[in-house]
Write a structure and sequence with these properties.
The chain is an alpha+beta fold. Helices cover 35% and strands 31% of the residues. It has helices at 13-26, 43-48, 75-84, and strands at 2-8, 32-38, 56-61, 64-70.
Length: 86
Amino acid sequence: MLTVRRFSASWCAPCRQLAPIMESVSTRFSDVNFITIDVDENKVEAQRYGIRSVPTVIIERDGVEVTRFLGLRNENSIVSLINESR
């Protein structure tokens, strides 16, 4: 099972731009678990994943990190990363 963890913050402009893109991506994958984590509200979780900047997106397969990216990406790029992570 794939999990996509998006680390963001309310004050982060790129995070706000990425949100609707990720929302659209999530509608294309019924078998992928999408989680949004606010780094200010979940500092322990952010530290556990070594988050140093936002937005950061981590794709995990069966609980193991497959890939991560920082910053904005377009929808097609994110869809490709998810497909490559299967």
